[in-house]
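For reproducibility, we list the full input for the iron/sulfur cluster complex.
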Amino acid sequence: MPRVVGELAVSGSNKAVTLADGLINKLIKEKGETFEIGFPETGYFLPLIYATLGKEVKTLKDAGGIVQIAKSLLKKVPENDKWDSLLNDAVDSGVATAFAAELIEAIRYATGELPAEGWQGFIPDSVLRSLGIQLVDGRISGVAVIVGAAPDARTAERIIRELQEKNVLSLLVGSSGEKTFRDQLIERKVQVGLDFYIVPIGKDTTSVIHAANFAIRASLSYGGNKKGELEKNVNYCKDRVPAFILALGALDDIKVAAACAAIRLGFPVITDQKVPEIKKTPFTLHEALLSVSDYSKIVQSALLAREIKVKIKEIPVPVAYSAAFEGERVRRQDMHVQFGGKFSSAFEYARSKPLNEIEDGKIEVIGPEIDEMEEGSAFPLGILIEVAGRKMQLDFEPILERQVHTFLNEAMGIFHMGQRNMCWIRISKEAYKKGFKIKHFGAIIHARLHDTYGKIVDKAQIKLYTKKEDVEKIVPEAVKVYEERDERLAGMTDESVDTFYSCTLCQSFAPNHVCMVKPERLGLCGAYSWLDAKACYELNPTGPNQPVKKGEVLDPARGEWKGVNDFIHQKSNKTIERFHGYSIMTFPETSCGCFECVIAILPETNGFMVVNREYAGPTPAGMKFSTLAGSIGGGNQTPGFMGVGRLYIVSKKFISADGGIKRLVWMPKELKEALGAKIKKRCEEEGMPDLFDKIATEENATEPEALVKFLQEKKHPALTMPPLM
Ligand code: SF4
Ligand code: ZN
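The corresponding predicted structure, in tokenized form, follows.
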């Protein structure tokens, strides 16, 4: 451990803690000790402090207590020059700095000093969860925390493009002198935002804490670790959060102290400055601090130090191609041509054919190519994908077809939305200038089908129709097939199959969690129906979706099967013994963290509410989605609370052992509207067509008393059903 790093860390931590101390004392004088502080939309208080010290900081008084702890970690100068001793001094200083930074940032929020326009500040739990699932399924391969700025805008652009191409999420923090990395990107017209895997966090170095408390919340919400479990929470970050720090530009003592905190969490620091390097420490996988002055090597070095492996696919198109571009939008003024949406008819349709009827790699554009399409115009587009394979099945067709969205979106300058005959696609002017053609849609689909679905797709050919009469001729056939597919799953019941499918994809984050996917209950993230899970198993027999024989029926009403219990016990690392598939009150299925909705008991109403991730407002449970979500994740069973996929709400098996949809008393308006027709249908099936109007939304009530009053007025059936508790 180089002495200079230790000295800078010690000096930085003293500054940061003194600053926090001063702020708190000043504010106590103004507002009193009971003045509340905290971050918006989180159930984890000040998450780093909560996870490592187990303390719920809610007021200035609580904050004062933390400052004392931080002070106890401070050193005057590094104690001696031995490597171990210097390292310990440095990381203690780092930790003290992190506590101070979290307090400072929370106080800023409490005093109304919100992040500047264009900066995210604290990352709410809901964003954490949606990023979490992308980390789990590999769409995000790692997280780069970029502290400071590049020497010039071109270098910044180059670094960010390399990170994007490797599917790394970048969090931007701090500045170098007057320059920020964000401004450099904007100067180069790089689109910035979560959709592009670039999130500017804050201009001050202390805002780096939002990256740290993002990482540590993953441990709390996915790892099933508890507040105060310091080693477990820190080890989770080290083992499962693939983050690293790129420290660019001159280093000051606070930056060095923050870097030492990162090292304590297992995140290596790579800097463009000439500093003595730090080899492997007990906290890190490999080197803790690297000095790399060649900007063309800096990203590569970071990935190596953090052991992030990136799967690079060569896609034969003239634009950049990576998951980082998936969320990119093409605005009207930037668009060369568009297809579908409300502007023209379009469809995507995948069908299988006998092997000898398909010429692999054949891509035909039937109708005008892009050069014949005027700038700003709309054209019809039919994407007909024909595949063949020895292992191909009818049930795989929709899975392949649904990939068109991701496949096309991942090309830079291409925007895709929707599916089937409701798709909408745009090609940007820039992509057009780079030589992107309609035929490249086919090239992308062909390459990705082979790459991702090589097990079932032996051959694929793609026809791209750009003439109205052709598109309109094929649409009716496609629509007929879409409907048949929907009916196939809709007609299936849990009783009609003898095998369910597990999903353990989320175990990389929630090691004890298992989703049990049934025809009438999809995975809680909403991404896996029984047909999907079955197809995935057939595509990847040793993957996260495994067949589970139901075996002996132990309780048909509660949904308990011997085969399922045995499987769960084994795959939950022996932490869970029983699952009741249709109950939330007894042995409910576990929740990992990526559920679309949370169901929660409302004892006053003798019923349940459902809240979806997108709804950030208050609920009658007295908690927002984020707080509720925080209390049920991590692969635990929590009777009365459960994470579910949206469509489970309209399943006949929706908590059927507890009374089903008749127990549903409250849900956000947006969710109620989105599922409207399906909920109404379920109400009719239950013989209560007017139940729909009895389910309250935030417009009717957000407090238990008001809700009960509403339910009484409406004569909601839950009020008179058998008591839940
Ligand atoms: Fe995770 Fe369950 Fe979705 Fe699988 S089905 S990805 S385990 S939430
Ligand atoms: Zn999950």
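The chain has four domains: 3-110, 125-306, 323-472, 597-720. The mean pLDDT is 92. Both points were considered when choosing residues for closer inspection.
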